[in-house]
């Protein structure tokens, strides 16, 4: 059934539900109808008896030439008076002696004033009521009956019409199922084609979303959101590749030009040592760029496929160690450190590299002081690393963590991107803001 078209599946569901309901009605309805009509017939007999009993029992209730039960009007209530011994006082119709003996036994043995009875005679059934009545010196009985022929005919007719109705409903159930197929499968088919185009990297046309607020509309909105993110990611990737090409091209071009010049006996820096020093510096720059690019790739891999490398370590120790190694780049700077023990679980090596990039950035722009504060507040733990250097503009702060975004004295434009990727990998919220006096820049890490 999994390989069937959606329309056939929906029709099968409709048909199965209708068939189950039909089988239930076929099994339950006949007995329910019989019980209902039988009760109504008894009520009709009792109402007719009450009319007779209230008017007295004088007068004949049966004519001698009454028709046989096969020719009687089955809707008519007929009455026969029974004497105090339970024997009929008038004509007995075509009822057998055995039937009257049974009626006599029931009349004499009943304890209540009125009792309901039923009996099958040959291929027919009869419903009757026996009521006690006072007529003369001795108590008598009123025997009232109706043949069930009308009831059976009515139940049979209703049953037949119900079967016809069920058959018609089953035949025409394809109409609502066809509407349901168009309502459900049409937008799904459109989205399937659009997703296939997106899979082929043809994601520049927007996904047609509808105003419907059901799950199909939500799915369309999710696909459109995915498409927009893929477009942005593709644009970022193209921009990233262009920046990489530009950043790698410059040192390679310098190395090749200096190498060719030395081979021709020309020394651009005056002598061979000076020229080789430039080549070595450019090679070092190239090495740093390649290392950062490889490290960013590693962070992306860890974020997508987090492995079992996470360990428990004290972040304060990592920061202290990093500060001690880098502070000698500018020994004139003063350091304010508040680093209580803070144990986290994650990738210790990644945090050490992130802190190296961030603290190196702080040292580069600080004028006289760098502050590193780790403290608790109502929202959790906050790490704040700041300096008293120049402030940052709003436009620059929005792009600060993008690849190859460099400040005035920046080097490669990848350090803060590595910091951001590390924070995202550990689900830590990172932010950047200017200092309270309008000077300096502060990076914050919020650990929840």
From TrEMBL:
Keywords: ATP-binding, Cell membrane, Kinase, Membrane, Nucleotide-binding, Phosphoprotein, Transferase, Transmembrane, Transmembrane helix, Two-component regulatory system. InterPro entries: HAMP_dom, HATPase_C_sf, HATPase_dom, His_kinase_dom, HisK_dim/P_dom, HisK_dim/P_sf, HssS/ArlS-like. It is found in: Cell membrane. Its EC number is 2.7.13.3. It catalyses: ATP + protein L-histidine = ADP + protein N-phospho-L-histidine. The chain crosses the membrane at residues 162-181. Residues 243-448 form the Histidine kinase domain. It holds the Pfam family HisKA. It is a multi-pass membrane protein. One of its GO terms (molecular function) is protein histidine kinase activity. Residues 182-235 form the HAMP domain. It comes from the Bacteria. PANTHER family: SENSOR HISTIDINE KINASE CPXA. This is histidine kinase. It comes from Paenibacillus eucommiae. The lineage of its organism: Bacteria, Bacillati, Bacillota, Bacilli, Bacillales.
């Amino acid at each position: 059934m999994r390989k069937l078209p959606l329309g056939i599946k929906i029709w099968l569901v409709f048909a199965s539900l209708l068939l189950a309901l039909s089988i239930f009605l076929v099994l339950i309805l006949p007995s329910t109808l019989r019980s209902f009509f039988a009760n109504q017939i008894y009520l009709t007999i009792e109402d007719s008896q009450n009319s007779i009993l209230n008017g007295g029992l004088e007068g004949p209730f049966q004519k001698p030439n009454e028709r046989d039960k096969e020719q009687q009007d089955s809707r008519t209530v007929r009455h026969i008076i029974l004497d105090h011994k339970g024997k009929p006082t008038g004509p007995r119709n075509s009822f057998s002696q055995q039937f009257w003996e049974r009626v006599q036994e029931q009349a004499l043995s009943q304890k209540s004033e009125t009792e309901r009875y039923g009996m099958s005679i040959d291929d027919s059934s009869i419903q009757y009521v026996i009521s006690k009545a006072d007529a003369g010196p001795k108590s008598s009985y009123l025997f009232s009956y109706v043949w069930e022929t009308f009831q059976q005919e009515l139940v049979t007719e209703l049953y037949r019409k119900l079967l016809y109705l069920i058959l018609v409903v089953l035949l025409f159930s394809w109409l609502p199922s066809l509407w349901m197929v168009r309502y459900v499968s049409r937008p799904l088919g459109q989205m399937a084609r659009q997703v296939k185009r997106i899979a082929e990297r043809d994601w520049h046309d927007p996904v047609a979303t509808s105003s419907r607020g059901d799950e199909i509309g939500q799915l369309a909105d999710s696909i459109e959101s995915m498409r927009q993110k893929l477009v942005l990611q593709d644009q970022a990737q193209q921009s990233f590749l262009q920046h990489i090409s530009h950043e790698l091209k410059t040192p390679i071009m310098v190395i090749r030009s200096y190498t060719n010049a030395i081979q021709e006996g020309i020394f651009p820096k005056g002598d061979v040592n000076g020229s080789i020093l430039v080549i070595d510096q450019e090679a070092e720059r190239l090495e740093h760029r390649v290392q950062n690019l490889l490290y960013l790739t590693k962070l992306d891999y860890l974020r997508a496929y987090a492995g079992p490398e996470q360990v428990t370590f004290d972040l304060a120790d990592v920061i202290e160690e990093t500060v001690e190694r880098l502070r000698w780049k500018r020994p004139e700077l003063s350091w304010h450190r508040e680093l209580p023990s803070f144990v986290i679980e994650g990738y210790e090596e990644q945090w050490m590299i992130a802190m190296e990039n961030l603290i190196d950035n702080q040292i580069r722009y600080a004028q006289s002081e760098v502050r590193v504060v780790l403290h608790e507040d109502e929202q959790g733990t906050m790490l704040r690393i700041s300096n008293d250097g120049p402030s940052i503009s709003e436009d620059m702060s929005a792009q600060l963590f993008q690849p190859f975004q460099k400040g005035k004295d920046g080097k490669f434009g990848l350090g803060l991107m590595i910091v951001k990727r590390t924070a995202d990998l550990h689900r830590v919220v990172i932010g950047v803001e200017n200092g309270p006096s309008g000077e300096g820049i502060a990076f914050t890490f919020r650990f929840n």
